[in-house]
Input
Amino acid sequence: MDKIAIRGGIPLHGDIKISGAKNAALPLMATCLLTDKPLHLVNVPKLSDIASMSELLSQLGVVVELETSPEHQTMHLCAKDLSSTTAAYDVVRKMRASVLVLGPLVARAGEAHVSLPGGCAIGTRPIDLHLKGLEALGAEITLKEGYVHAYASKGLRGATFTFPMVSVTGTENLMMAATLAKGQTRLINVAREPEVTDLAHCLNAMGAKISGMGTDSLVIEGVNQLNGTTHQVIADRIEVGTYAMAAALTGGKVRLKGARLDLVPTAASLLLQAGVSLEDEGDALLVKAPLTGLQGVDVMTEPFPGFATDLQAQWMALMSVAEGASMITETIFENRFMHVPELCRMGANITVHGSSALVRGVKGLKGAPVMATDLRASVSLVLAGLVAEGETIVSRVYHLDRGYERVEEKLRACGADIRRVR
Ligand code: UD1
Output
């Protein structure tokens, strides 16, 4: 099994090109199920989660073709003939986002059979809101032997559904389903993440009638059919935040090409408070570490535009070596501090109290063998390794490969001593 070996202490200097967002690409890929026309997605990242979604769509009868150049990966998807409406456990267990095929399948084919998902072990992560929302749109849902069975033989019908809590993939699933429902659907208290907006733009380009993007309510006028389109996947804001923190942590200066400040509004303002400089260069963001040391800043994770839970572990690595203390509160997932014991093994001083972690900054971290437990935890250990004295070996890097494209290559190009070992 691959491991990542890092010798820390080198300030990062150079350019990093931000990849297309995994969390945008996955729902965009699922939209192909809504039409018999081809969908072309530009700037799809090369990641194992994308490969898992391709495999799942292929099993449903979608023709998936990849066109790869050194700069871009373009994906051509065509769901002309669906051969199956079952998303089997073998694929779904690898990636929770597989549940995104549920809404499109039931809307287009009138039925879907989707295994209950697996994915990152960061909490119980139910899908009850996806199911309640589909029921509101007229689907009949049963759970049997670990599968969700959804039927809408006469098609879905528009309805009003209020999310009791904000769910990103829940919003995406219902928005996709509602595009082909009869009449108007109003989704209230929806996720406002940029990936949701990107999906809505792609669906509208396919002929859907969605309004309210970026607000907490979406109105969707159902249409009879959707067409194909060509759509460019937005930049990965979690990569933006992660590499900005890597630059800040190592005392470096890194240009993030393709990054936009509006994708990371809260992370950017917190980085500024910590003393990091961020210069908007239009098509890039120049990140400079503070000259006199990082300051501890408190953080609470929230739905967008708040601070992303997917950046919480990286922020903790950053705060581990800041001056003073930082309180980090996780409000989205109940079990997302699994990186704490690993960071502590590297010399960090962190105490967890329920859903908050108190990080008392230390002078420096020490390299150690550590274990990745989930996608974002794994990259926080890489960040810690970049600043630690001596060698850090991160094992179970398959978590990292789910969501970070060519991470060693990107960091090495900025001077990091990082390599993949077997
Ligand atoms: C998405 C992202 C993930 C990110 C998360 C929160 C993708 C593919 N994944 O995950 O990287 O960490 O948003 O920003 O986009 N919940 C329920 N019932 C449901 C659905 C969710 O109780 O039916 C709860 C979850 O357990 C969690 C909270 O709602 O506590 C938010 O989860 P949600 O936004 O749905 O996360 P995902 O869409 O799975």
Summary: The chain has a mean pLDDT of 95. The pocket of uridine-diphosphate-N-acetylglucosamine is lined by residues 23, 26, 96-97, 123, 125-130, 165, 167-170, 195, 309-310, 332-333 (CB under 6 Å). The longest helix spans residues 237-250. The chain has 14 helices and 24 strands.
